[in-house]
UniProtKB/TrEMBL annotation:
Record GO terms (molecular function): iron-sulfur cluster binding; metal ion binding
Identification of the protein by name: Coenzyme F420 hydrogenase/dehydrogenase beta subunit domain protein
InterPro entries, alphabetized: 4Fe4S_Fe-S-bd (IPR017896), 4Fe4S_Fe_S_CS (IPR017900), Helical_ferredxn (IPR009051)
Keyword vocabulary terms for this entry: Iron, Iron-sulfur, Metal-binding
Keyword NADP recorded: no
Domain 4Fe-4S ferredoxin-type: 232-261
Length: 301
């Protein structure tokens, strides 16, 4: 990927030198070799910090929210999942397309920095750090869906195994088994809200979970309030989740959050589709659960 790193730096320098953008969001190396973190680049000199390597796993689109109230024109490098996040923000009226210059990079799949850190630590129970990260092993859209220019070449989907296989295993359970499964899962949540903070689809200015008057969800960490949190969040992102897997990756207790997200992705497609969120930028497009059609399925009522 050395070639791509050179191209990324060249593009950034050109855009900044021509004043096409005020700043650029990309990736730079962190303190360890298995960390490639967000880089905010404002000058041609700084552009030499940029990289594109196998650890550029962060979805950069979320960071656009830090600039939503400004006027700066922003250049942003996007993989497949980042680009869907950008479409999400534009569709949700959180960011204007005109303020963005999007540089797409078809994604070869990323490695898991935590697995790499573990492998590097010498601790027992060394996980697989050579293969793709969990989120990338389920990726069907590695190519940017929106861009002003494109670097690199098109990639095939990285999906390993059958799509939605995990969801189908949960669907095959009895309702009592499913209850047990999710009760065990939600009881481990510490309500740190990292999954919400990292999520590009969680872009409301005022989140229901922060409201105190009225307080919709209790602050205590207990099964009932945890359950409420996860079900409400899942319904808020239903039809809007761009399947970037960042929520699951950010979770400090390793909850399999993508199970719930993918169940909703599958259901929204089957009930209201064919539909997958944010695969193309269309003026006025709305996710299925944001509009009402007289022929919407309602046999669950
Ligand atoms: S989810 Fe897809 S686009 Fe995103 S980092 Fe993984 S392989 Fe790349
Ligand atoms: S990141 Fe994990 S522990 Fe934190 S609120 Fe989300 S599910 Fe719970
Ligand atoms: S719910 Fe998770 S997978 Fe979906 S958009 Fe948010 S962070 Fe990405």
């Amino acid at each position: 990927m050395k070639e791509l790193t050179s191209q990324v730096r060249e593009v950034a320098k050109r855009l900044l030198a021509n004043q096409k953008v005020d700043l650029i969001l990309g990736w730079e190396k962190g303190a360890q070799p298995f960390r490639s973190n967000l880089a905010v680049i404002r000058s041609t000199e700084e552009a030499d910090r940029l990289v594109f390597d196998e650890f550029c796993i962060n979805n950069l689109s979320t960071y656009l929210l830090d600039y939503r109230d400004g006027h700066e024109k922003i250049g942003i490098f996007v993989k497949g999942c980042d680009s869907r996040g950008v479409v999400r923000l534009i569709e949700d009226n959180q960011f204007a397309r005109e303020r963005l210059y999007i540089i797409g990079i078809p994604c070869p799949g990323m490695k898991d920095p935590v697995a790499a850190a573990w492998a590097d630590s010498g601790l027992a129970g060394k996980p697989d750090s050579e293969g793709l990260a969990a989120k990338c092993r389920q990726c069907v859209h590695p190519n940017p869906v929106v861009f002003d220019e494109l670097l690199g070449s098109e990639q095939a989907p990285h999906l390993e195994g059958e799509r939605f296989a995990d969801v189908k295993r949960i669907e095959a359970m009895t309702s009592a088994e499913r209850y047990e499964f999710f009760a065990e899962m939600f009881s481990r949540c510490i309500r740190c809200y990292a999954c919400r903070q990292i999520c590009v689809a969680c872009n409301c200015r005022k989140c229901i979970f922060d409201e105190t008057r009225p307080q919709w969800v209790g602050r205590e960490v207990n099964l009932a309030d945890n359950w409420m949190y996860h079900v409400v969040r899942a319904m808020h992102i239903a039809g809007r989740c761009v399947e970037c897997g960042e929520c699951e990756r950010a979770c400090p207790v390793g909850l399999p959050l993508m199970l719930l997200n993918r169940k909703l992705i599958k259901d929204v497609n089957e009930l209201f589709g064919p539909y997958e969120a944010s695969l193309k930028l269309e003026e006025g497009a709305k996710p299925p659960l944001s509009v009402y059609r007289p022929d919407d399925p309602d046999n669950f009522l």
